[in-house]
Amino acid sequence: MSTYFEDISPIQFASEGSPDGLSFRVYDADRIVLGKPMRDHLRMAVCMWHNFAWGGHDIFGDPAFERPWLTGQWDEASNAMRIDAAFDFIKRLGAPFYTFHDLDVMETPDDLRDHASKLAKAEDRLSSRMEETGIKLLWGTANLFGHRRYLAGAATNPDPEIFTYAAAQVRLALETTHRLGGENYVLWGGREGYESLLNTDMTRELDQLGRFLNLVAEHKHKIGFDGLLLIEPKPQEPTKHQYDYDVATVAGFLRKYGLENEFAVNIETNHATLAGHSFEHEIASALANDAFGSIDINRGDPQLGWDTDQYPNNALDLVLPMVLILEAGGFTTGGFNFDTKLRRQSIDPHDMFHAHIGGMDTLARALLLAEKVIEDGRLLEARDERYSGWQTEKGQEIMSGNTSLQDLADDAMERNLSPSPASGRQERLENLLNELVQ
After folding, report:
1. Which helix (H) or strand (E) segment is 47 a member of?
2. Residue 305 pLDDT class (50, 70, 90 cuts)
3. Judging by beta carbons within 10 Å of its beta carbon (0-12, 13-18, 19+), is residue 330 exposed, middle or buried?
4. What SS3 state is found at 299?
5. Annotated catalytic residue 20
6. SS3 label, residue 61
7. Among the options 28, 41, 88, 101, which is catalytic?
8. Least confident range of 36-40, 182-186, 235-239, 320-324
9. Candidates 84, 104, 244, 246; catalytic one
10. Is 246 considered catalytic here?
11. What is the DSSP letter of 108?
12. I want to staple 162 with a disulfide (CB 3.0 to 4.6 A). Which of 134, 157, 219, 285 is the partner?
């Protein structure tokens, strides 16, 4: 295994903290919250790409991180070192899951057959490390956006040869995920969109994407993969407009192409805000459309208009999202994946631990505050009371489908209805929430 983190002891829960800050102040994996241990509510994962495959570069700057596996060569030696370092880190951190793209864990391939061969070798190493550490795979995916062949998309590409190449790449990644016991498989359409309608046939591209996702669903059943297939919505960046703009857009797309029973969504916090929504809005939309799957937990910077992928650090922002998730029964196969980046000036190994410890404590604190809201009950009771009329005989008759528009109109005329509005009491409920989270 890697020796890169050898001077860092396994991270423990210590309510008083530790002098160096390398301990959990809130996240106590075994603590029971609403009948389940914290670890089972949160199901937290560490991603391979930002932590171990990204060198700290940005559009204005060269790589900033000096890790022994970031040699500039994606060869067998550096790949082995990268995988070993990742599992050493995750084991010391105490997170139960990891996530990866195919190209995060393998050497640079020469061609498609070489891709298959090198991914198979990476799978062997991943499987070995999983067995040694007990760390599980939350989800895998294929990178269908990085290589120049995907300049104009993968499934939505004008060239059917590129569509075919992408299909082969997804097949390999899906089957690898299946053999590794992955609980989900994610498709992120980073280039599935357009830069200009001058050269884009949107109808054709949407049909291509629908066909591609149907092929993926068919292959899932063929190989016996029983995990969830997930789509990750994002509005733009890198493209001007991406076809998976937000949860509602994805839900409509899935229904159009008969995929609503095959796919759910992997919601990223920063993508929600880029789409002009709140994080809780996207969760509520997913639940309303029976499409809730998993979460990439990060945040943006309100003064920057792009996807900064920062670690969550404000539990108050996450209380309402956590309440919605818990009310719906929590995760099944999904979890909270730290799709997050260190800042470029955070160049030490310890910084990786501080970042994840802070994020995990933030989620744990939000979980405890959500528990408080749910057990108090007043907030949820106020919401239920607002819709109580729909529990009456009349309300249920309307929703049953056994009454017509004419029936309703006749009833309103007969009773000469003149209903008055009721207060939504928003300010009162905001005060109550603030009271509960103090």
Report:
1. strand 44-47
2. confident
3. middle
4. strand
5. no
6. strand
7. 101
8. 235-239
9. 104
10. no
11. P
12. 157
